[in-house]
Design goal:
This protein is an all-alpha fold and 173 residues long. Helix 1 runs antiparallel to helix 3. The protein is rod-shaped.
Length: 173
């Protein structure tokens, strides 16, 4: 007696099993990678806000404008020289602070983006490993079910035939 095709692991059943496993993994992979993408896109703004880069740049620009105003030849007099030196020094200090904060923020953003990229790759690889593991497990389970069905089907058919024969005998007697 040949085994019915419903107990064989066909290409269609393998493809369906793989498709459902992949869809099951995408349920958690897409939100995780989407969250990483959102963080990566907003990271420069958050880092600038944390370090106060914009405020430092505005302060440096304002102090530079003040020093420029005090450097005008019309205003230059002995009493204004001290105010100009003080304003120029404050302007240079603020510009240095703004540049330093901007550099540190840029390095932090680059580092954060690199960590997020590595994390995304790890999540993707972990998802692929889970897909492989689940597919292997389901393939093994399918094989066991099909093996049991192959063994039980002839026995069940024999029992069904006996029951049918006994009912036939009972009806004829």
């Amino acid at each position: 007696m040949t085994t019915p095709t419903k107990y064989k692991d066909t290409f269609q059943s393998k493809a369906a099993r793989l498709t459902w496993i992949i869809l099951g993994q995408l349920i958690w992979i897409i939100p995780v990678l989407g969250g990483g993408y959102y963080i990566r896109e907003n990271l420069p703004e958050w880092i600038d806000l944390y370090f106060g880069v914009t405020t430092a740049q505005k302060t440096a620009a304002a102090l530079s404008a003040r020093a420029e105003l005090l450097s005008e030849p019309v205003i230059m007099n002995p009493s204004a020289i001290a105010a100009y030196i003080k304003a120029a020094f404050a302007s240079m200090t603020a510009a240095t602070k703004a540049y330093s904060l901007s550099s540190v923020a840029g390095i932090t953003v680059s580092l954060g983006a690199m960590i997020l990229n590595i994390g995304g790759i790890i999540v993707f690889i972990y998802g692929l490993m889970r897909i492989r593991k689940k597919y292997t497990t389901q393939t093994h389970d399918t094989f066991l079910v099909n093996q049991i069905c192959k063994e039980l089907t002839p026995k069940l058919e024999a029992i069904q035939k006996e029951v049918h024969d006994l009912t036939e005998k009972q009806h004829h007697a």
